[in-house]
TrEMBL record:
InterPro entries: Nucleoporin_int_Nup93/Nic96 (IPR007231). Its main location: nucleus. Belongs to the nucleoporin interacting component (NIC) family. One of its GO terms (biological process) is protein import into nucleus. The gene is LOC118417503. This is Nuclear pore protein. Pfam families: Nic96. The keyword Membrane applies.
Length: 830
């Protein structure tokens, strides 16, 4: 019976063993492994070492769990959350799940939608950042490019003068940088004085003097007739009644102003011709036979005594006083004396018919224009009988009276450019003069003819710059005339001040943006009208001397006060900001803050009522360029204490733990901060309490590190105890950890250095006491000393332990080497 039972039991065991063997042979999760004794021994050693490391890691995890658990953190739950968050390393869509798993499918679709939104937002963010980056870079490059072009324009030919000069040994080269010499020549300085006089009158609210008169006074002192003629022309042409209009464009297009310009231009050319005739007569007195009653009639007669041989051929209708009658009439008209022309007609019997009537009406008219009906009669008579006349003076006189045959240049009579220009101005018909004639000659047509068809080449502008400027200026093309003159190095100063005259008279056409080219044409402007970028013109001119003569540059910038930058800022303020940053003349331009807190006025106070506003703008520009120290001084000058504290905190937190060194950034910032702190403590400030407390705390930390780096450990430890930044007892740890969150980030980022410095102080004191105790002689008193020493060493170790505990509890990720060094020093004290 028993044998059968045993046989059955062994059979059952055998069957189970075979089943287990079959499972092991066929299963993929539990592969069959065969090892020898050496392999088993190596595996055991690896498991033992791994278990030791796991025990150490468990101990570390346990300590971390204790610290985090004390603050109410559930470590296992946090670990699970971290694992779920770190499961997906990229934003790629998740793999699809089986169709039968509805919950998994919905969860997967939701996560895919979230990931797709995150990826799209990330891509859009990167694209937006890159686009804004390149836009900013392009804007910065445009500004720098304009500065370079302005510098080259201001330097002129001198910028490309590479000739080498031999320097005297032992002496510095001749340079304007740092020598105190002005970059302005005598002409430019004279102009600047007149601009100062004008601005002074504007600022004081007095009657504005005429800029044209002021600049003409400068030309009077120059031994250059061309310059004097230029300013006399500007003075004459701009002496017009100003038209009330919303814009310079509207004023310039008004027929009233155009008529005034044409009249002044003709009068100027006529006066110049009178001077020419007078000079010719007095240079040839014997041939001229000047006599009789003084006046234009006898002057023209004497002039013809000199010019007669050249004009005798083809003359018609007899003579007056022995001279061709039509020549006499023309030259009287050319001199601008209509009464003298009428006198010639009265003295000639052959001209007593219709022409005498036409001329009398022409003389009586205020704007030297015949009535439309009379003009039509004269034009008809000219086409029928006068056009084919052999007398060039007769044809010219009829063309002047009737403004007809505008294609004829009358080269036999108008052989000089001024004569041609005067004759064309006499033929100009204004837009409101609608007489119906098809060959009406308008001012834009004359302007296009001279500027676009003829141009600089026809008038040999490079050899005769004053003549070409005169041609453009007298025909109302002020912007093109100034642009041309500005391109001539020796005449640049004159061009700028002509532009100043027109700008102050509200007659200069300027583009809509100061970033436009110097001379532009905008859509909708009539042909051939141009616009002059007055802001760029002034900045190009002042670029030459703004570094050596900032006060003079400031005078010119004040004229730009009504222009705006693309950002809507006042161009005057923008130029002042750039000037201050370029020259760094903060005290001279913006003023200086005295020790008692009062501000000493600067040059800018004369021009700007709200000086604090422009100082703040300069400070903002300085801050944006990364010049934070200068920005602190400027914000302090503008009494923006909030910005002063914010910037100083950012600057100080970067140098708090550095050792003091002469002429270093740290010492310079410390001196600046100490001066401001003393002033704020005595006079108060308007900054936020948090920023102020952070500022004074950073200064105390600077003092702590000063003592620490200079070896004054007791004073440094006393400061750190009074600051209560870090705990030196276990009882104060919780309190200091709780106070940690109230500190600003500028203080927090320096706490690792404070902890390390405090631990170094404790270790240095520990080592010093330990060394002194070991060196003391053996005696009865040594027992008492050893007891005191050990007590003090224990006290230091407790302080070090408090620092270590504080470092582990604060919610701040400190550098790894700081933690390692703290632990190392604490271990050395045990």
């Amino acid at each position: 019976m028993a044998t059968d039972m045993d046989t059955e039991g062994f059979g059952d065991l055998l069957q189970r063993a075979e089943q287990l063997t079959a499972d092991m042979d066929s299963g993929v999760e539990l592969p069959r492994v065969e090892r020898n004794l050496q392999q088993i021994l190596d595996a055991g050693e690896r498991l033992w070492s791994r278990s030791a490391q796991a025990a150490a890691q468990d101990q570390t995890d346990a300590r971390a769990s204790i610290l985090l658990g004390a603050k109410g953190f559930d470590v296992p739950r946090i670990s699970q959350r971290l694992e779920t968050l770190s499961a997906a390393k990229t934003f790629e869509p998740l793999e699809p799940v089986r169709d039968t798993d509805i919950q998994g499918f919905l969860r997967n679709e939701r996560e895919n939608a979230l990931l797709a939104a995150i990826e799209e937002s990330r891509r859009n963010t990167f694209e937006s950042v890159e686009r804004h980056h390149w836009e900013f870079m392009q804007q910065e490059w445009e500004i720098e490019k304009q500065k370079i072009l302005n510098a080259l324009i201001s330097a002129g030919e001198e910028a490309f003068d590479f000739t080498q000069e031999t320097e005297v040994p032992g002496q510095l080269g001749d340079t304007t940088v740092g020598t105190g010499r002005s970059n302005m020549d005598s002409m430019e300085m004279s102009y600047a004085r007149q601009v100062f006089v004008y601005n002074d009158a504007v600022v004081q609210g007095a009657v504005k003097p005429s800029l044209a008169d002021l600049f003409t006074q400068v030309a009077d002192k120059v031994d250059d007739k061309n310059i004097l003629d230029l300013w006399e022309m500007v003075q004459a042409v701009t002496d017009v009644p100003l038209v009330q209009a919303q814009s310079p464009m509207e004023a310039r297009r008004s027929s009233q102003l155009q008529r005034a310009f044409i009249g002044k231009a003709r009068h100027f050319l006529e006066q110049r011709y009178v001077q020419f005739i007078t000079t010719t007569i007095y240079d040839n007195l014997q041939q001229a036979q000047l006599g009789g009653i003084p006046g234009t009639y006898n002057m023209v007669r004497s002039f013809l005594n000199i010019r007669l041989p050249a004009v005798m051929a083809g003359l018609e209708d007899g003579e007056v006083d022995g001279h061709p009658v039509w020549a006499m009439v023309y030259y009287c008209l050319r001199c601008g004396d209509l009464d003298a022309a009428a006198e010639v007609t009265e003295n000639c019997q052959s001209l007593q018919g219709d022409f005498a009537m036409f001329l009398r009406e022409y003389v009586r008219s205020e704007d030297r224009r015949l009535s439309p009906s009379t003009e039509t009669k004269v034009r008809l008579h000219y086409r029928r009988a006068i056009r084919n006349s052999t007398d060039p003076f007769k044809r010219a006189v009829y063309c002047i009276l009737a403004c007809c045959d505008t294609t004829d240049t009358h080269s036999d009579v108008a052989d000089k450019t001024e004569d041609y220009l005067w004759l064309k101005l006499c033929q100009v018909s204004l837009d409101e003069d609608s007489t119906g004639q098809q060959d009406k000659f308008t001012l834009p047509q004359l302007q296009s003819l001279l500027l676009e068809e003829y141009g600089e080449t026809h008038f040999s502008a490079s050899q005769q710059p004053f003549l070409y400027f005169q041609v453009l200026f007298l025909t109302g093309q002020f912007e093109a005339a100034i642009d041309f003159l500005f391109r001539v190095d020796q005449l640049r100063a004159h061009a700028v001040h002509v532009a100043v005259v027109l700008y102050e008279m509200k007659l200069l056409l300027t583009p809509n943006t100061v970033q436009a080219q110097l001379l532009t044409k905008e859509d909708g402007d009539p042909v051939p009208m141009r616009r002059l970028n007055f802001g760029r013109l002034m900045m190009s001119y002042t670029r030459k001397f703004e570094s050596t003569d900032p006060r003079e540059a400031l005078q010119y910038f004040y004229i730009l006060r009504e222009l705006k930058t693309p950002g809507g800022e006042n161009l005057f303020m923008a130029c002042v900001s750039a000037l201050v940053l370029e020259t760094r003349e903060f005290d001279m331009l913006l003023g200086k803050l005295e020790r008692d807190g009062t501000r000493k006025p600067g040059a800018i106070d004369k021009f700007h009522g709200d000086t604090h506003k422009i100082i703040e703008m300069v400070a903002q520009d300085t801050e944006s360029k990364g010049q934070s120290e200068d920005a602190v001084r400027l914000y302090e000058l503008a009494k923006d204490h909030e910005k002063v504290l914010i910037l100083l905190n950012k600057l100080l937190c970067q140098v708090v733990s550095q050792p003091p060194a002469p002429q270093s950034d740290r010492d310079r910032l410390k001196a600046l901060a100490v001066g401001i702190a003393e002033r704020y403590q005595t006079q108060g400030h308007s900054g936020a309490q948090l920023e102020a407390s952070t500022f004074f705390l950073l200064l105390d930390m600077v003092t702590f590190f000063d003592h620490y780096h200079t070896g004054q450990l007791d004073q440094a430890l006393d400061i750190i105890q009074r600051l209560q930044l870090v705990p030196l007892t276990q009882e104060a740890v919780e309190q200091r950890v709780a106070a940690f969150s109230s500190y600003a980030d500028e203080v927090r980022r320096n706490l690792p250095d404070v902890l390390l410095a405090a631990m170094n102080i404790l270790y240095s004191k520990y080592k010093a006491v330990r060394s002194a105790g070991q060196a003391s002689p053996t005696s009865r008193g040594r027992l008492r000393e050893d007891s005191k020493t050990e007590s003090y060493l224990t006290y230091l170790r407790k302080q070090a332990r408090a620092l270590i505990t504080f470092a582990g509890m604060i919610p701040y990720r400190m550098p790894g080497d700081t933690n390692a060094r703290l632990v190392q020093l604490e271990v050395l004290m045990n």
